[in-house]
């Protein structure tokens, strides 16, 4: 047997034992509350109420149920300037339970917990057997099976968590709500035994009344021994299994990360089609909209969003045109011609990436005032084009440099002008790079927000990024419309971006790396 | 240099003229204006007065919120750039291996990069609302929590959320730039490493990292600039409240300039931010130009 196998399995064994006997589940049941209004600490009414509460506490204690008496004083000054005071007495019974108690109680959630334990146990035994076994084939089979079991145990952890949470809440809720379910006597007894050591008896209903329970996230620590066992099993089972396990790990993490990345977009999508009442009400809300309100789309478009989309299209389109018209010749000159100041200008272009429009907002708004471009779409076009120049030149130059100049030189010898060589020969060859740049500049201008908020004051001239904020006024936010508009603004951009993603990343660094 | 024939010495300048003009008018002029304003006295109505020396700077630096704003900016840049670089690098390593569905994973990765920051910030703003936010909704539905959790109980926590959103939206940029660097590494290097018996970590340290270092530097420096200048996330989620406690320089100067109408201190802050970035970009440019030298 390998040394690491011994260590790993032993440590995980110890961990499981410790986890099983640590009091990690906490339950708080509120046995009694008494609100005593117009009571000040120490006065007669207070004494009376306190005595009453202590009486109740004593009756519970007589039955062997420990509880603590808390008092909370809420003081308030009313409109007449008189201080009023409210004293709340509560008797709480806090108890902690271990996973072992849970297993012993035999509540439905504990079935999976038991299964988890059995899986781990089998995995350990198999790993050890594989460790002492001599035959290569048997070793592999046993190791694989052990790894599979350990993996299954790991997958069981969230299932146990989920099941415990739901089981407890559902059982207690149903029991209290009397919603047609009859909890069998045995199950009630089990619940009683688990929560109150069987001492609640007839009082069970009262005591469950304000039961707050948390299944501790400690449960997820079971993942650790699971993982260790997995490693140990993999260590005993040979290369192939290790590869397979890595693969599984890869897929699991990729899937989780993808879900994480897509989550806000999922939220945007579902919220866009909720009704107004649903967006601002959390309780009893289903994950998906109860009724898909496709009319939200039409409503949003009617409320000016169509206008904003057209504005955005104009701004982004115009900015892209200007940026390309200025950028292509410049990039061409920098890629193909040698002149003094070439390096200086290239350096300036690199530097200019740090000139964010946000920092220069005050200057920009003043400049626009003097140019009479304030509150106009062309103004935004120019700003966006100018601040994307660096990218445009960068990406285009990288593309041009990567294409051999032989064809152009031949064309020039044949009497073609430099401009002719650019348009007829280089541009068609550089088409992918140009499209990438085009789309990138377009998206950047489409998403631009800060300058537009400052420069645009007329409502009908707003681009979509600014336009969506109209749905969030100070005291009311119409989330569903905000998100429908956001959806309309996002979908085209994401699709466009997917098309260029591959070329873009290469271009962004290639410009810097290849020179 | 693969040159084409140029007939006149001034011809190249003609080619770059439109671009120079565009940059001159819409980038250089505003910079000039900001610098001029920073050193002048400005009335609340916006009328520019005389040269005021460092008066505006003194006013900006001595305001009560300034230390907190600087500290926030520091943490904001450090946490967002640092963590997104780390996570983005890991993502790039994963996406560089062939596996089933890699294309789909890459397409998914594009989402936070492509979508507008305001929109993503609005969505996260909705998600973490206590009363009806989607996070509480989903956790309640799953039964993982029994009561709505207040995910933004203090401004420190809100600032952490803002950093979190910043990290999420920055990861794809790092991932794709590093990925393009990784993909340009020839397999021969890895084969050689495998032949030499190098394990995963050794290969990572001695083969992968040195070879992706150029793309990693480019992405990190660009990231520092973008994150420093990032405005919509903080503006959408907290607007710098309470009392500028969650502001970074950029949002703070926006508020100063356009809400409080204090153009003087605002432009002074612009200049300060500008100088900070100058140092960063100067280092960056120095490095790129050096590389340029060695290749051209």
CATH homologous superfamily placement of chain B? MetI-like
**Helix-strand string of chain A:** HEHEEHHHHHEHHHHHHHHHHHHH
DSSP helix fraction of chain A: 55-70%
Number of helices of chain A: 20
Distance between the termini of chain A: 56 Å
Rg of chain B over CA atoms, rounded to whole Å, is 24 Å
The proportion of strand residues of chain A reads: 5-15%
User: What share of residues are in beta strands of chain B?
Assistant: under 5%
Task: Name the poorly predicted regions of chain B.
Answer: none
> For the record, what CATH class of chain B applies?
Mainly Alpha
- The outline of chain A comes out as flat
Number of strands of chain A: 4
What can you see in these coordinates?
The complex is a heterodimer of chains A (515) and B (296). With 515 residues, chain A is of the alpha+beta class. Chain A is built from 20 helices and four strands. Chain A has helices spanning 3-21, 44-62, 99-105, 108-132, 136-177, 185-196, 204-208, 223-237, 239-272, 276-279, 295-336, 342-351, 361-371, 377-402, 406-413, 418-429, 431-447, 450-455, 464-467, 479-514, and strands spanning 23-36, 68-77, 83-98, 211-214. Chain A has a four-stranded antiparallel sheet. The two termini of chain A are 56 Å apart. By secondary structure, chain B is mainly α. In chain B, 73% of the residues lie in helices and 2% in strands. Chain B is built from twelve helices and two strands. In chain B, helix 7 packs across helix 9. The longest helix of chain B is centred in the last third of the chain and has 33 residues, at 263-295. The chains are: A alpha+beta (515), B mainly alpha (296). Chains A and B meet through helix 5, strand 4, helix 9, helix 11 and helix 12 of A and helix 1, helix 4, helix 5, helix 6 and helix 7 of B.
